[in-house]
Amino acid sequence: MQFNWISLRGNKLECNDCGCVEEVESAVIRSVEEIKLLFPDRKITTNLVQEWCGVVESKKRISRILGRHFNIVGVHQWAFYV
Length: 82
Fold this sequence. Notes:
Mean pLDDT: 89
Number of strands: 5
Strand order of the largest sheet: 1-2-3
Order of helices and strands: EEEHHHEE
Low-confidence stretches: none
Oligomer: single chain
Helix content: 40-55%
Radius of gyration: 13 Å
Number of helices: 3
Distance between the termini: 27 Å
Strand content: 15-25%
Largest sheet: 3 strands, antiparallel
Structural class: alpha+beta
């Protein structure tokens, strides 16, 4: 899935309207902070972040980013990050 206003190019997201560029990792972390602010009771999972971001399709990539910045609790489909 690719939004017409955002392009994923390697490790960067680029806005096709204004040309603003952001690292994928910082975009994922920003998205996690948005989710935590709007839905404080929801567990942060790879699937939830993928649905929220919309642009970063790779669950493996999201999982690696979350693993670098948060602690994982549980395993497999029951895993979430704190």
